[in-house]
Description:
Blueprint: H1 8-27, H2 29-32, H3 36-56, H4 59-82, H5 88-101, H6 104-107, H7 115-129, H8 148-160, H9 169-184, H10 189-209, H11 214-239, H12 248-262
Amino acid sequence: MANKPDRGPALEAFERLLGIIDDLRAQCPWDKVQTEQTLRILTIEETYELADAIDAGDWSELGKELGDLFLHLVFYSKIASEQGHFDVADVLHGVCDKLVRRHPHIYGDVNAEDAEAVKANWEAIKLAEKGSASAKSVLDGVPKALPALVKAYRMQDKVRGVGFDWPSIDGVWEKVEEELVELRTAPNDAAALEELGDLLFALVNYARHRGWDPEQALAQANDKFLRRFKAMESLLAERGDANAKQTLEVWDSLWNQVKRNEN
């Protein structure tokens, strides 16, 4: 059995953070008036900054953003402890207990030969923890406030854990083509909007079956469009036409030129 790493430095650093939060909560005018509601939007912002660091592959920035997020988690726990709800120890023991409980293939006598079996066990145990299957849904754990693209992916992944999924990617692609036809032949705007949603949902499903992250794919497409459009603006500026309205033919020519330059 491999030797466990020395936890001393990590525990010392965590204890230091807890002490600083205690000091700030007691002495800093800004920190003293914060609540879980005032911190909420800041936490969401920090989470997106963490995502940016991940997407950029910037490990230095990732470490900084993780620190900011740790700060928020400890801050929420401090506020909760002041109100008698729970403290940071309760939070950590809670997640540890959950991890042990939902990994019976590690801490029990259940067999799980691959990642899919682990996910299926996780969803089954989670549903059982919430009570009667007739009263609870496997989708209840999907946050309502998730961005639509991420939410579609999470819902599809959740129901896959209980067996509700296409057996092969062929059926998924057929569904994409079916939804595209229904969008093109929709009789009115209301129907077309609904079919557009169905098509996007089907495309998310296709990405999931391919092992792709649709949110990342769209983010990369956004970044590519931003990069190319700014490059076109630079070309126009070189011609003395910056910020001037152009014909579609000019934009098409510039777009193709930028693509050629990239290649």
